[in-house]
Structures
1.
Amino acid sequence: MPRLSLDAGNHLAYERRAGKPPTVLFLPGFRSDMEGTKALFLDAACAERGRACLRFDYRGHGRSSGRFEDFTIGQALEDTLAVLDRLVEGPVVLVGSSMGGWVALLAARDRPERLRGLVLVAPAPDFTERLMWRAWDEEKRARLLEEGVIHEPSDYEEPVPITRKLIEDGRRHLLLEAARIPVRCPVHILHGQRDEAVPWELSLELAAKLETPHVTVELVKDGDHRLSEPADLGRLAAALDRILEVAS
């Protein structure tokens, strides 16, 4: 598997498919990687369309170097910008899932000249603050500050380590606290109304604050957080086609 070398001996694992621009770059969610259902579906969809596509793993995820316990939102952004700057030529459409939606928004803000559109699936901007820190009781907050890490139960796997570093770094990248978010490319948001991880109302708040006038929010009444059922993947493909039609 190809690797992108970083400082201090680190590397990012990635898979790249040649094709016509703009390149579709997939950004996975928290604790997810480039081998997930949506990532592989997008790769296949791009192959059918002759579209360039790139998938990668953040440090501490999948086949990339690093420990998950050292992971932060800032690091995910650094990794994404390294991929954009060093592996992708020309215009880009970012597809971000959950946390990847937050990272996609940050990358769109930092590389506006490269972005032609965003497709966000159950985007989770500011989740470290909104859905973790503010949702916790005082005992849990105090334990994190004292011990530096707590382990949260997960529906999908073993308990997930949440570090003080993750929470504190997340505060440097908050988007929803501002009146406007400086993203001006077309955006299509998909969000399930049965999402128990990220409230769908968050996507409405996000849409209202984006500077672009070209925002579509598609709510899936029976959709969960993953939106990985066949019908959901069909919606993802349609959203991508819509953005690509505008972007190409």
2.
Amino acid sequence: MTAQYWLVKCEPHECSFDELKTREKRTGYWRGVRNYQARNLIRDQMAKGDLAFFYHSNCDEPGVAGIAEIVAAGYPDPSQFDKSDRYYDEKSRAEDPRWYSFDVKWKKKLKSFVSLTDLKANTKLEEMKVVQKGQRLSIQPVSAAEWKQVCKMGGITE
């Protein structure tokens, strides 16, 4: 099966791409996705070995900072069962979890940060989900052509 590409959004104050590199095994554990469409992508389509653009969101300059590899995908988000966690969901059950997590590993930093403004200015990326009005999902599929274009904009070949 061919690897798929993703764009995964994270607020830098929660975890920046640079911080991910400093974590044990350079791995981050994605928690707290509470949108059913994003959940379905994680649960049903994302796979170990897929690659993702690590996108800084909800900050002064949103954009793609680097590339991460999906090292574990589609497992129940443990935060939904933890009453002390801000993502606790009292309606979720272990035998029928509502929410799913995935793990990413730092792979490569882009030579040049690719801002949302830059993405929107590139006519080859008009169909990319992140540049479309109303697209706020934190997990988004990326086509192979979009992947290559953003890598090129970031100064790398992948």
3.
Amino acid sequence: MIQNSCNNKRIALYPGTFDPFTTGHLSIVERGLALFDEIVIAVGINDSKRCYQPTAERVEHIKRVMKDYPQVRVIAYDSLTVEAAKQEGANFILRGVRTVADYEYERNLAYANRNISGIETVLLYTLPELSYISSTMVRDLQRHGYDVSPYVPDEK
């Protein structure tokens, strides 16, 4: 197992655009805490994606949602995910999988990330009752004036 050079903590980077951060994302973090000592939620800056909320707002919102979780940090990054993981001292990448299509995509990323960095990816399957929730769905509902509170976690 790859270990953090500073200590033996199991640190996972949980990357995504999180536009917005949903109850599905929160579930992955909460379940991931049973596996990792620390989770770094990494909000990716991706110029090829048009985001609904600015990066700084997404980071601050997630920080407020996660404020009761001292073992969770939230950052923004604009590099390769494995570079952000190394910078944050993470020895794992955590990802959630909702569908077969997600699995295929994540599997290929995991192979590439391990090949270029040695960092392992851990996939957690979304809970069945949350599997239909996606950031895209939430944005569409929000854009059309629907209440999205069942799909996004409350701020603390």
4.
Amino acid sequence: MAGDFPLDPIVATFARHGLRKTSMEDVAQALGVSRQTLYLRHGSKDALIDWATRGLIDASLAAALAGVDQPAKTLADRLGDALDAWVGCHMKTLHASPYDGEIVAMLRRDPPDAVRIAERRLVAAMAEAIRFSGPGSAVSRAGSMAQALCWTARGLVHAVPDHATFRRQLDHIVGALVAR
């Protein structure tokens, strides 16, 4: 099965060399498998990129939805955890890559349908959490608030220097928004 490869070494290899310059040999070495094994399982570098992208999206969404579903935490903490899992946890890899601009440009130009679908699911889960746990004034605008928080988190990833600052700023913004 294609899914038996760990994502971290694949993502790290593409981040280190860039999408265009990474060879199947580079990825094979990072995984400790032969190049032929990669081709047999994925067929091409583009197919491998698609598989890894989908795996990263699925893992991020699962972690983000788990962040929303923490009834013992405050709404602000749950939303912050969800957004951190969705985008914040990728900051270190993105900021460490000399090819972060290439990766971001590719996703902005033609975001995979999987990203749009996953983010819609996250926004819906966040909106539901806001409707059920937020202040009364937030109920009618829960969907808009959730979408705005996703956009804000994506922007913060590029605006702040490190993950600690990302989380601090995100918590401040989320807290201010859901406190009203």
